[in-house]
Amino acid sequence: MLRIAVVASPPVSMFNLAIPELLFDKVRVDGRPGYEVVICAPDPGPVPTTGGLRLHVPRGLEALQEADTVIVAGTGQPFSPDPRVLSALRAFAATGRRIASICSGAFTLAEAGLLKGRKATTYWQHAEEMRRRHPDIDVQGDVLYAQDGPFLTSSGYAAGIDLCLHIIRTDYGAAVANEVARLALVAPVRPGGQTQFTQTPLPPERGTVCADTRGWAMRNLDKPLTLADLARHAGVSVRTLTRRFHAESGVSPLQWLLHQRIERAKELLETTRLPMDQVAAACGLGTADSLRAHLVRRTGLTPSAYRAQFSRHGTGRRAASSSAA
User: Fold this and answer.
1) Are residues 179 and 265 in the same domain?
2) Cα separation of 199 and 186, whole Å?
3) From the CB of residue 10, how many other CB atoms can be counted at a distance below 10 Å?
4) Looking at the 3D structure of the chain, how many domains does it have?
5) 201 in a domain, yes or no?
6) Residue 53 to residues 12, 48, 50, 139, 309: CA-CA distances in angstroms?
7) Model-level pTM?
8) Helix/strand/coil percentages in the chain, nearest 5
9) Could you read off the pLDDT of 17-73 as tens digits, one per residue?
10) Is residue 132 part of a domain?
């Protein structure tokens, strides 16, 4: 079981604290918990929050010594981090273990000198301030999250969910990460390079009229499904299906179908050793060349590079943790 220490510097964002606790707690591997999450603070005890409440945090910064990963939560005072936190983070970073931040927590990593010469991001409203204060950081102001070596930073608010799902996928694979996303009722794992301002590839569903057809399509992704096939299953015309589908899912039927095919391909690449042509056939993308084109367009990685980076076989999750981009 991997240990995660979440640093809560006052006044801490309650939402930032809730994200790791919620998502990592849902991870199960062979029926056992995949993570232990510990909240810690420079001064254990009542810790002020940005909402005016106080949370009782029982652990001090010594909790970092026991952790595999440290996550720095966002704070209402991002530009003046506690020197004790900076010292503890520098000591932890010297071990080469993974350090992440959510929202304005990136300023703490920057003040500690951990992001110098690296790619990083933060909440878009703070991006210019990050550039001004730390010109030696390659600030990626319009992405959900960024990783450079063992250092991960996410932009604001719900992008912390994407960051945590990325960590879960890196440690335990796409199948586990997507199951956590389903349990938490959030979008599946999204690539970190996705802009903060565009809609997700698969927006939340807003109805159930086409739910049976979506479920049927998911069970038949290996088949060359067409709009006519989907409309026939739903018992409506193609025009009606398209209108209802978009109203419920926010995308067209074929956009939704392509997203599901690519997600299935990613899962197969991570969890099996199937040849590329068999992966393409199993998810309905036709050929290995088609699989390659779609995956490169969506993730920036070829199928073989994606498998090498995220596969649960071969190199193992520890290697993936240190090499994921």
Assistant:
1) no
2) 13
3) 19
4) 2
5) no
6) 10, 6, 7, 32, 42
7) 0.65
8) 45, 15, 40
9) 999 999 999 999 989 999 999 999 999 999 999 989 999 999 999 999 999 999 999
10) yes
98-101 and 151-154 beta bridge pairing: parallel
Using CB atoms within 10 Å of the CB of residue 280, give its burial: 0 to 12 exposed, 13 to 18 middle, 19+ buried. buried
Same domain, 215 and 173: no
Taking the C-alpha atoms of residue 227 and residue 3, their distance in angstroms, rounded to an integer, is 47
Burial of 144 (0-12, 13-18, 19+ CB in 10 A): buried
Question: Can you tell me the distance from the alpha carbon of 202 to that of 186, in angstroms, rounded to the nearest whole number?
Answer: 11
Domain that holds residue 240: 211-310
Q: Look at residue 315 and tell me if it is in a domain.
A: no
- Mean pLDDT of all residues belonging to the chain: 87
Q: What 8-state DSSP symbol labels residue 235?
A: T
Assess whether 246 and 302 both reside in one domain.
Answer: yes
pLDDT for residue 215:
87
Rounded Cα gap, residues 105 and 83, in angstroms: 14
The alpha helices in 61-158, defined as continuous H runs, are 83-93, 105-111, 127-133
Q: How many C-beta atoms surround the C-beta of residue 247 within 10 A? A: 12
- Any idea which residue has 């056992």 for tokens? 32
Q: Let me know: does 285 contact 62? Beta carbons within 8 Å.
A: no
Domain co-membership, 128 together with 247: no
Backbone angles phi, psi at 98, to 5 degrees: -80, 135
- CATH no. for residue 53? 3.40.50.880
Question: In this structure, are residues 303 and 260 in contact, taking their beta carbons and an 8 Å threshold?
Answer: no
Q: Are residues 162 and 281 in the same domain?
A: no
Asked if residues 9 and 34 have their Cβ atoms less than 8 Å apart, the reply is: no
DSSP for 8-59, please give it.
-PSSBPHHHHHHHHHHHHT-EETTEESEEEEEE-SS-EEEEBTTS-EEEE-B
| Strands of the sheet with 2-7, listed across from one edge | 35-40, 2-7, 69-72, 98-101, 151-154, 145-148
pLDDT of residue 181: 86
| Euclidean distance between CA atoms 12 and 41, whole angstroms | 10
Say if residue 308's pLDDT is above 50. Answer: yes
